[in-house]
Amino acid sequence: MWGRTMRVPEAGGWAVEFNSVTRRYGKRVALDSVSFVAEEGSVLGLLGPNGAGKSTLLGTLCGLQTPDEGFVTWFGQNEHVPLPKALRKRMGVVTQDTALYGELTVRQNLRFAADLYGVSNPRKGVKEVADLLGITHRLDDAVGELSGGNQRRVAIARSLVHDPDLLVFDEPTLGVDIETRHAIWSHVRLLRNRRKTVVVSTNYLDEALALCDRVLLLKNGRLIEQGKPGEILARTGRYVELDCTPEVAQAAFATLDGQTEVEGLSVGESGLTVRLTGSADPNRVVEMALAVHHIEGFRVRAPDLLEVFQSLDDSLPQPQLTDV
């Protein structure tokens, strides 16, 4: 199996370092002094809304764009774009657009990539990645005849055929079914277990929680938060949804407004949503509401990605306005 024969990088060090990287397009700042490291043998998640600068960051990370300020190092090397061939061979990339040759078979697509990277035994390499991704039975099928999920598996297999040390996945589970999504998650975990470094761009918070050792939260080109996913969620707090009529929701709003455990309240058609502090006890908040109001039901949940960003925006220092 490929998982047993692949080369394992030596332990320790950083696969990628961004040091105060700024990238501009004319007057628009796409990346604003971004700094982070991706440790070898880890999964780093990149999250952010559209226009946050994720594509620019990934393009710079892959050596396709040059920073206007700051610098990037790959495995301790600070190189100029275009990157040396030896360094490019240590990377594998899966873009949102699979960019496969639809008229060619799966085998031909993988063999082309193996030849492009100078794989010493391309037949063996193709078989191993096909086995890993569960597409061996489709090797002689035209890629254009495959489902979107299987095309995504072929794209990932192509990125692995030359056994790179650094994998860059741009929304790898976009548009795939649940079964394929969890299969891709398993592959990413396998790569980490073999001390490969994986950078994953995703819009799914549950995906970041399931896969990533650390996450970067990017907005308007700025890195607004980074750390372990669980720690960021703990700082964001949990949410309690109270099912009740609009009238009761308004009354419960008045009861809970100002409580130390409560960071935010929102009345909706189905009831009241309460944002709690990271250390708050949801049961106490529910008990306070039940003591004076008729609540039909409630649920406690983690925030979604939009709510995480809203919470972090609220906690960031706001610019001070002065009279001119």
Please tell me about this protein's structure.
By secondary structure, the chain is of the alpha/beta class. It has two domains: 2-233, Rossmann fold (3-Layer(aba) Sandwich), CATH 3.40.50; 237-315, Alpha-Beta Plaits, CATH 3.30.70.920. Helix content is 36%, strand content 26%. It has helices at residues 2-5, 54-61, 85-88, 106-116, 122-133, 148-160, 178-193, 205-211, 229-236, 246-256, 282-292, 305-315, and strands spanning 14-25, 28-39, 43-47, 69-74, 91-94, 166-170, 197-201, 214-219, 222-227, 239-243, 262-268, 271-276, 297-301. α4 packs across α5 (122-133), α4 (106-116) packs parallel to α6 (148-160) and α5 packs across α6. The longest helix has 16 residues, at 178-193. Residues 317-324 have low confidence and may be disordered.
Give the gist of this structure.
This protein has twelve helices and 13 strands. The chain has 324 residues and is an alpha/beta fold. It has two domains: 2-233, 3-Layer(aba) Sandwich (Rossmann fold), CATH 3.40.50.300; 237-315, 2-Layer Sandwich (Alpha-Beta Plaits), CATH 3.30.70.
